[in-house]
Specification:
The chain has eleven helices and two strands; from the N terminus they run αααααββαααααα. 66% of the residues lie in helices and 4% in strands. A hairpin with a 2-residue loop joins strand 1 and strand 2. It has a two-stranded antiparallel ribbon. The protein is globular. By secondary structure, the protein is mainly α.
Length: 255
Amino acid sequence: MKHAFLDHHSQTESPIHHLDARAKIIVFFTFILIGVSSPPTSFLLFSLLAMALIGIALLARLPLGHLLKKVLVILPFLFVVTISIPFMKKDAVGGGYNLGLGGLSLSQSGLWILWNVVIKSCLGVFSIILLSSTTSFPQLIKGMERLGSPKIFTMITSFMYRYSFILIDEMYRMKRARDSRCFGGRGFWQTKVIGHMIGTLFLRSFHRGERVYLAMLSRGYHGTMPETTARRFGLGEIIFLFLSPLLLFLRIYLA
């Protein structure tokens, strides 16, 4: 049972990987807040944010091709959501572009909205991918706890992360059992088999969760997870945290 789709490359050796999770959470969420709060005309600020994120990725020794593929995953969803935006909002005379296709035209304000959504989504997703690629999920959860996140939220998230792998393996076992019985999967009537598989997977997950909870109670679980010794901020974390006020300065004077 080995899956690495959530925190791929998080075990790489680099100066960024060795930083405390709290520092990385603060800095990368500052990137997101600065990007989201900036007006769409802040081309210089967006360029600096992108270059800073690429610089962090290079310092973390992450393959840019892998990161780019993950960022491009959101483009189909953005396309579905935003494809109609340039055609919806009407501008004043001279504020749009006539395509010459049956009166079809693009509004200038709609194009600005489209650019605003795309650039901010890409920068935000890139920041989250860098955070998850440089911080293992358990460290990320502990960092969020030490920053004051509700324990019930971090506990549910950690359980979801840990047992999602068991759920995926159970799904693969059911798929192998289905395929070993010469399942074609091309006829409409065979959707009934898939429906039964989904129901069975739900029931197995429910019963597995009950068994896991009883096993935890038998080992002394009382609603909280054991605490680990908090790591102190070193020079590397302090230097990395200086990015946050620098980003705020750029947001104020460039946006």
